[in-house]
Specification:
The protein has 399 residues and is an all-alpha fold. The chain has a single domain, classed as MFS general substrate transporter like domains (Growth Hormone, Chain: A). The protein contains 18 helices and no strands. The model is unreliable at 391-399 (pLDDT under 50).
Length: 399
């Protein structure tokens, strides 16, 4: 926290992540409350993320050219504006499903700027020997945001209505955008070619880097499973177990609290040379924890299963983030991370999109698909990701 610019960045990302966690809960509950359709909830969640992922190579080129902090601000302000719009139109009963989906597409377009900007600015601000601790703090802020954001969203939806919950979420995004203004990005600027040429080179770099490609495959399968849960767990709690919106928030908050405790313990572990093994073990343990969900007959069982998932997920998160930083050329952090982050998270919206039809067929079927996809993710770290460094010796030395 004594690294120049790092505290302000952490504050901004923390506020943004609280808003993101609120959005994860409030938006699904909003769609379920106003349209009574898990299928629309899945489609809207998909469009809230996926279209922007297609633009991630261009976003990466912009991050390397113009600085990451200012573009993080741009995304937060765009997201805040769009969700104020959704809340206002819904309150005035002027938000048909087609318009909702169109606004979700618009909100997604700048998403890679903050997602990749945050990940790529960390290793430029923080010395390499502190990367594990910085990533642990990053992961801690994410799970602590779950402790605050998810319950807060559930309570706001329950007591003030989903529109007010979305408006509060938009306000936090705006504050996060203001907080990061003025943070200096010390990373190198790459302006030798046009934006499209740089975007193409960043895409090729990721696809040709076996580590980044392997991480993308790993996180895609993992993300499909988690994306299914984002829709299936609220349906499980609201439908089968007859709970209210606040309970959904409390359960996700408990998951965040468990993850925070786990991160404090795991964050000090050295991961170099053990990243692949940590990821595989963690993924398999997550799948085992998820396996209790289709059998759950009470809120306590659902909460306990997800808390176990949160406790065993932290080694995967920290090993994943640190390995990606170690095996990426520092001069390509913006472009590589924009493409890599987008490839990594594309599984989430895909999982959410397929969850709606699956739930219409069988809620348990959707949960078992989530478990199977998560377990399948353990294949790729061993089969695809190489054991040694892929960077040239000079780049490893610079790390």
């Amino acid at each position: 926290m004594r690294v120049e610019g790092f505290p302000r960045l952490v504050v901004s990302l923390f506020l943004g992540r609280i808003a993101s966690q609120m959005l994860t809960v409030a938006f699904v509950l909003f769609v379920l409350a106003r349209y009574q359709s898990p299928q629309l909830a899945g489609a809207a969640t998909f469009l809230l993320i996926f279209p922007g992922l297609l633009l991630s190579p261009i976003a990466g080129a912009l991050l390397d050219r113009y600085g990451k902090a200012r573009l993080i601000t741009v995304d937060y302000i765009v997201v805040a504006t769009t969700f104020f719009l959704i809340a206002g139109l819904s309150a005035g009963h002027r938000l048909p499903p087609a318009l909702l989906l169109a606004i979700c597409v618009a909100a997604s377009l700048t998403g890679p700027l903050s997602a990749a900007g945050a990940r790529s600015i960390f290793p430029t601000l923080v010395p390499g020997h502190l990367w594990e601790r910085a990533n642990a703090l990053d992961s801690s802020s994410h799970v602590l945001a779950s402790v605050i954001g998810a319950p807060l969203a559930g309570v706001l939806v329950a007591f003030t209505g989903p529109e007010w919950a979305l408006a509060a979420t938009a306000s936090l995004f705006a504050l996060a955008g203001v907080a990061v203004v003025g943070v200096r990005d010390p990373g190198p600027r790459e302006r030798g070619a046009g934006v499209l040429e740089e975007a193409w080179s960043g895409l090729l770099y990721v696809l040709r880097n076996r580590t980044l490609a392997g991480l993308a495959l790993t996180f895609f399968a993992f993300g499909v499973g988690w994306g299914c849960l984002v829709i299936a767990v609220p349906v499980l709690l609201l439908g089968r177990l007859h709970q209210g919106p606040a309970t959904v928030g409390y359960v996700w908050g408990a998951v965040g609290a468990a993850g925070f405790v786990s991160t404090l313990i795991v964050g000090r572990l050295r991961t170099r040379g053990r990243e692949r093994q940590l990821m595989v073990g963690s993924i398999l343990a997550i799948a085992v924890g998820m396996a209790a969900l289709p059998l759950a007959n009470s809120v306590a069982v659902v909460a306990a299963a997800l808390i176990v998932v949160a406790l065993v997920e932290t080694p995967f998160d920290i090993a994943f983030l640190t390995l990606r930083q170690r095996r990426t050329d520092p001069g390509r952090f913006g472009r590589a991370f924009a493409v890599s982050v987008s490839l990594n998270i594309v599984g989430g919206p895909v999982g959410s999109a397929i969850a709606g039809p699956l739930i219409g067929w069988s809620l348990n079927g959707a949960l078992w698909v989530a478990i199977a996809c998560t377990a399948a993710a353990a294949i790729f770290p061993i089969l695809v990701i190489p054991a040694g460094d892929e960077l040239p010796a000079s780049a490893v030395q610079q790390h």
